[in-house]
Fold this sequence. Notes:
Radius of gyration: 15 Å
Oligomer: single chain
Amino acid sequence: MNHPPPPSQAPQGSQRHREEAAGDGHAVPPGSAAAARDHVRELLLLAGVSLDGVPAADALLVTSELVTNAIRHGHGVTAFRADIEDGVLRLSIADANPRPPTARTGTVDHPGGYGWPLVQRLADRVDCSTRADGKTITTVLRLS
């Protein structure tokens, strides 16, 4: 595994940093929220974003929630893309369930329901595009 340079040596500015994983032979999508967070953490470091700040914490939380939801409710992650340009993180996570996410209230018997509203609150923009064989959720988060 490649380890990113320390933040003090990472390139900054408007450089573009991208990591993709898709079912098209290029790479295998992350199989867990932890693996997806590792991808995004590396991109943040390469872009010179401190992992100690709120923007990085928000980016990692949104990543975790979207991938977890794709695994739990979307029959798995079918494609993953993370891109940082001009201080903006764009995440796209695709799954195999065409139903768009919905907010729900957790109960004692079925806890949860906080992830989707949390993603909508933390991201500057959230888009969901559906297809017959699944959906893609794309978020945009400012990192400064």
